[in-house]
Amino acid sequence: MENYNKIKELLASVEADAEKFYNGGNSAAGTRVRKAMQDLKNLTQAIRTEVTELKNKDKK
Questions:
Q1: Mean pLDDT across the chain, nearest whole number?
Q2: Count of structural domains, the chain
């Protein structure tokens, strides 16, 4: 659940930059959005791995 909570926090923190980029044309905000999306990708992969491990652990 820790990584899931990190995802929620990350999405909340990047919302303002996404607004600045998409509606204001701020390219620096776009860079921050891209970095946040890469971090999001890494967190989601960590969750997938964790879920798979826990699921397989229960099968043993």
A1: 94
A2: 1
